[in-house]
Amino acid sequence: MIRRKYMRTRELKPGMRIDHAVLDRMGRNLVQKGAELSEYVIDSLLKLGVMSVYIQEGEYEPEEEKIPVSLAAQVQIDKLRTDDRSKVTLSASVRKRVAEGIQFIYSNTESKELVAATDNIANDLLRTIESNNAIAIDISALKTSDEYTFKHSVDVATMAMVVAKKVGLPQKQIREIGVSGLLHDVGKTKVPNEILNKPGRLDDEEFKVMRQHPVYGYDIIKNKKEFTPAVTLGVLQHHEKTNGKGYPMGTSADKICPYAKILTVVDIYDALVTERPYKSAFSQREAIEMIMSMTTELDMSAMQNFLESMILYPVDTVVELSNGEKAKVVKNNPNYILRPVVVGMESGTVFDLGGDLSCANIVIQ
To answer: 153 by DSSP, 3-state: which?
Structure first.
């Protein structure tokens, strides 16, 4: 089975295979995905300032045999199956434009083109959301870039826009929160690489520097009149907490802007489900449960609207129940994101995990 492993470039060895393409600032392909690395290529990556990459580990395996479905189960699946709410889906052309645009932004923070580049990406994302009336998020479907900072920024922007739409904000504000999400980590371009790419836990002094990245980001964009105060405050406050224990200023709940309250939730979620040099990725379920436990730190309205926008188990997903049975998801319930309606693939039993009290002791493994 092929797995991805995050590695610092200086630790790479000849013969390893890279698991993503490396582009230059013009969007040109310098290293193809799957290319075998040589000493020359590794040295070239270091000279280009590429400090970390994903590599491929393991071997390809044949596809697993499909799990059989009994006749009784198929009858129930056909009867109960309900399509998921419309999800955000980025086309290949949009993904390409967004990936190139976000890389340009984070590589050219002093450029006069930063505003236009950010606007173009936000407009692409808004058109995508509006084109199919997307009101839900399946994060596994958001694939824009293989580089963490770029992918994370687009993920956060896209999720924040969908949540803003769920809240009922007008289109102008949905677009603005997208801009704020795209730029929320731009201040990390001012953090020294040895701190930003450190594979282990940061010490107190290093963390003190890292905690300044919202201020650095705010400083980069505050004088650009095209960005509204709501956009710049979203960047500045995206690590603030409602209990006043966030950073960089420990702002209290009543002084945190609405954009930042949404951005904080989606930023934490996306960081939890992403593998980094210093931590393994949490499963989506674990991340959701952790978000749900942060009632004293996160705005409850933003949290609830985020949870109701998420699709954790897309319809047709095969899951394993705690009673040992394999089951197929046939319907999701926005109010019970962890507990969809499923059908046992052998028994044909319907388990309404969110609405049937007799299923209270059954969970998805």
So the answer is: helix
Handedness of CA 344, 347, 352, 353 (dihedral sign): negative
Q: Which helix (H) or strand (E) holds 274?
A: none
Q: Rounded distance, CA 51 to CA 44, Å?
A: 11
Distance set, CA 347 to CA 103, 283, 359 (Å): 50, 28, 15
Rounded distance between C-alpha atoms, residue 45 and residue 126, angstroms: 34
Residue 192, sorted as left (phi over 0), alpha (psi -120 to 50) or beta, turns out to be beta
What percent of the chain lies above the pLDDT cut of 90? Answer: 60
- Three-state DSSP state, 342: strand
DSSP-assigned states of every residue in 4-60 = EEEEEGGG--TT-EESS-EE-TT--EEE-TTPBP-HHHHHHHHHTT--EEEEEES--
Contacts of 242 (CB under 8 A, 6+ apart): 252, 253, 256, 261, 296, 297, 298, 299
| Residue 234: closest CA among 213, 252, 261 | 261
Look at the alpha carbons of 182, 185, 191, 195 in this order and tell me if their dihedral is positive or negative: negative
For domain 3-57, the CATH class is alpha beta
> Two tokens at 254?
């009543």
For residues 93-98, average pLDDT: 82
Give the closest residue to 134 by CA, choosing from 107, 94, 105, 99.
Answer: 94
Query: 0.85 cut: is pTM over it?
Result: no
Closest by CA to 132, choosing from 90, 99, 163, is 90
Does residue 264 carry a pLDDT above 60?
Answer: yes
- Domain regions of the chain by residue span: 3-57, 71-82+315-359, 92-309
Does residue 69 contact residue 325 with C-beta atoms inside 8 Å? no
CATH no. for 92-309:
1.10.3210.10
What the block records as the tokens of 340 is 């969809």
Q: Is cis: bond before 214, omega within 30 of 0? A: no
DSSP annotation of 325 reads -
The CA-CA-CA angle for residues 46, 186, 153, to 5°, reads: 90
Tokens of 46: 């270091």
The model's pLDDT over 139-150, given as tens digits with 9 standing for 90+, comes to: 666 655 555 667
| CA separation for the pair 282, 259 (Å, rounded) | 25
| DSSP code of residue 283 | P
Residue written as token pair 């926008």: 309
